[in-house]
Amino acid sequence: MKTWIRECDYLRFRDEIDQLKSPFISTPEGHYVKFTGAEARYFFDFVLDQTITEGIPGYGSTSMQIWVAKDDLHNFNNSLRLLNSTLFTYRYTQETPNLVLAEFVVTVRKTQLPISVVIPAYNSHIPGLKRCLASVLYAIDATESAASSEIIVIDDCSSNSEDIQSLLHTTYGAEQRVRYFRLPQNSGVATARNTGVSHAKHPLVCFLDHDDNIEITHINLCVQELERGGVDLVATNMRFPDQHIFCAHLSEHKGFLIENGFGSGVAINTSSPNVKALLGADQLYNVKNKDHFEDWELNSLAKLLGWRMVIVPFASYFYEYTDTGRDSTNLSLKRRSGLTTPLFAIQRVQKISLGQAHYCLTEYCEALIHQLLDVEARYEKAAIELRRTQVAYTDAANSLVTTRHALDATNHALNATRDHCTEIHAQLFTLRATRENFLALAKDLVRVFEAKLARRKLAFFTYRLTFRPAIYGSYRSLRYLYRHLIKPWSVA
Question: By the 8 A CB rule, do 351 and 154 touch?
Answer without folding.
Answer: no
